[in-house]
Amino acid sequence: MQQADDFLEESNTLFWLLEPLEDEAYQKMTQFKDWTISDVIGHLHMWNWAADLSLNNPDAFQKLMNDVTEKFIAGGSFRDVEADWLDGLKNTELLHEWRLFYTAMHERFNKTDPKKRVKWAGPDLSVSTSITGRLMETWAHGQEIYDILSVRRKVTDRIQNIAQLGVITFRWTFANRQMKIPPCKPYVKLTAPSGKIWEWNDPSDINRVEGSAEEFCQVVTQTRNVVDTSLKVIGETANSWLSIAQCFAGLPSDPPEPGTRSIAPPTEI
């Protein structure tokens, strides 16, 4: 399954970025909701575990989601839930536990029928979509780590998985906010890291998104505000969509405020 291999490669790329760091560097605050680097890896680790659980033990996964929902209702946050689950695991030790698990998880997904249905936080997903979601989360949350470490990531064409997810969640973005779904999907024309052109939906000069595939992926994963990109967005529907685009499950989430997410100036780590 190519999506599983892409998930492994993206995870390994992030691991090798972090592996040389000293333990205290993992407490460096990112530009994402005051999460530390260790918080980010803890988040990826727990929800990788949850996705793997949904594949192998649906009843246990449902119990986990019920417990998480109860904690949210009681006023808990993602960080509270994940801190309880991690039980003190953090920093370098967490990094290596994360790698051991995602490596084994990749093998389990790779041996499974891509069309098999699994549970998630929302509608059921195919196995291929589930692991694409983990690739998307790893890439998206990796962005705040690259940003705070002042590193310009090397982007590859495996982000086509994320661009595809961004395009097919057009209706979800509006439905999740209980907004009227526009009848016409924008034409999306993106330039891949390799220089290839990726296109979705019917060509249009009045309802379109055009530009860098990387920047499009940053917008739909909410790691950049669309106004901080060079994307060419034409038409009311296209502009409305990219102002709130959300390719991930969960409650409606707003993109970062303009100018608040960028590569940080170089500092000592």
Binned strand content: 5-15%
Largest sheet: 4 strands, mixed
Counting DSSP H or I runs of 4 or more residues, the number of helices is 10
- The H/E string reads HHHHHEEHHHEEEHEH
Find the count of extended strands (DSSP E, 2+ residues).
Answer: 6
Q: Report the oligomer.
A: single chain
Arithmetic mean pLDDT: 95
Number of domains in the coordinates? 2
Query: How large is the radius of gyration?
Result: 18 Å
- The N- to C-terminal Cα distance equals 37 Å
CATH superfamily of the largest domain: dinb family like domain
Residues in helices, as a percent range: 40-55%
Decide which structural class fits the backbone: alpha+beta
CATH architecture of the largest domain: Up-down Bundle
CATH class of the largest domain: Mainly Alpha
Globally, the shape reads globular
Query: Which parts are unreliable, with pLDDT below 50 for 5 consecutive residues or more?
Result: none
Strand order across the largest sheet: 4-3-5-6
CATH overall fold name of the largest domain: Four Helix Bundle (Hemerythrin (Met), subunit A)
